[in-house]
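MODEL INPUT / OUTPUT PAIR
PAIR INDEX: 1
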Amino acid sequence: MVPSFPSYSAHLLVASTLTAVEQLLSWFEGCRSAAPGAAQLPERMWLEAQMALVEGFTNAVRHAHQGLEPPPAVQLALQLSHEGLELRITDAGAPFDLAAAWERLAAELAAQADDPLEREAHWGLILLLKL
């Protein structure tokens, strides 16, 4: 359970390039320092949110904005409240149904008889699902 503290929100518009990950991480850590009560949140929550943020951002750059010239910026939003931590990543790519992708992946994994470590694709979906 997340302790009660004032809500906090932050937004960032960042270039759609993998070299912007450093800026992204700096922004996220700055949010952690600025958010009232953030120090009360478990370290694991911050680390998992950071991993999800980087994975979602790199997917937007590599997949959603693939072929778009010039690539549009990626919008990031962080909302922190006593109810939890929410990250939003908005890109200009085609709509992507994450819940449906997780359902397909779960069915695929359940039917898979071989070693899951031999997978070549969808590791990002697995990571996000676990986080």
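PAIR INDEX: 2
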Amino acid sequence: MDEKLKELFSKNLVDQLLAHGETQASMTRYMKISSATASDWCNGRKMPRVDKIQALCSWMGIELSDLLEEKSDKTTKQAEYYLDDEAREYAEFLHKNPEYKVLFDASRKVKKKDIEFVTEFIERMS
């Protein structure tokens, strides 16, 4: 087995576990594997069979490419940090427009239409 592929798979697996709030322990329970096997996968010592990789993908709701292909660090980190594209867009907007930072804390508790209303209100008052 290609060592680079094992290394890439293990990095992607660990990143995906973190991104989905899962652990090696939860993976062992779901996959019905030993903790030693999970550790081997996460540390790049061994590579699972294709059927196990597909089961991992189903469990986390990801594509095979998410485990088997190289991803840019920026893409991976963004995927881990933001739950969805809309949240990422709002965070980028707030970063570029610091005068709206007051909305950041409020945005966790209100609906999108409420945020849009307040944003429009602030813009009209400026």
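PAIR 2 NOTE: The chain is about 70% helix and 0% strand.
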